[in-house]
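Hey, can you fold this?
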Amino acid sequence: MLALTEFLGYIADNYTLVPQYKGKYKIPSISFSFFNPKEKKYKTIATEDLFVDVLEGKELVTVDTTLVRKQNVVTTGNNFRYIAIKTDFITTLQKDFFKSTLFYILLILPFIAIPIILFLARKAEERNNDVIGNKTRKANKLVKKYLSEAKKQLGKKEAFTKP
């Protein structure tokens, strides 16, 4: 059994109009189509034409009413800008990640990186376990440090005398 449910709602469109000239302006009617499930028909409803009487502003000078002129919008501040009526869509072709070069590189990378990391970890462990080698390396480091300092102080007797 098909149960029909009733939906209620409304649609509201808000527009900001900034008239530049005083006079009487017509806002054309708007229509809306919907399906009425009770009557099983599509219906269309429409609003009445609205007229707005602008009382303040500059006088509009009309030369020829049959000639339609396009006028630039005069902006007062940053509130209103031109509405873009033409667009330049650029298709962006996106390559799939699956079966791409980057996909295969990232797939193979763990098989290459893990053995290298294990090899380096073993070498570091062997080096840390070599007690005599570590003492020798530390001693060599200290010798280089003190000898380089002594080389800098060559020619100064005060640096080599005991206080």
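Oh, and this one too while you're at it.
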Amino acid sequence: MGENVPPILGEYGGLNLGVMEELGYTVRKKDENGDPVDEIDWEKTRAVQIRSNYIYINLKGRDKYGIVEAKDKYDLEEQIISDLYSYRDKATGKRVVGIAMRNKDSVVLGLGGAECGDIIFTINEGFNRLHGDGLSTAEGYAQTSVTPVFLAAGEDIKEGKITDRVIRQVDVAPTIAEILDVRKPEQCEGAPVYQILKK
């Protein structure tokens, strides 16, 4: 990791292991001298943050070493989310986490499902530095941005046209349908980007 990366950030985005330890959810094993080693003590760990922006509850019956009872999962998620919002960068006093929500609620952001964690969170603007750790509208750490760029070219596209319209992923299919002069998909949520089309 670069020298200027805030120590609270993980190597691959998200928060580092120490944050979840500090909040009391993750416990590392200790060596013979009582110093922590890079191995999770699953018998004492209630939740762990891995895969950038996912927090997994160490759930009994689902996870190999699970210790959290299913009946306690909802309350534990609520407490973790609350603690994430309260967590502050010690150097600046600013809140680090932008959004934190349960897996089932994150569908509104196009996330969630079996491949995601029990809690999904983003890093707040100014701390984010990787492609997926913050919202796409956020200005990132070290003057970076993950705002996507939409480019289109072809005989039906205006040459050199720049539009101020916010183009969303759901706008791609209806735009292609418009170019091909075919019916738009029945469950289409977006709209053609007429601003860039010649016709």
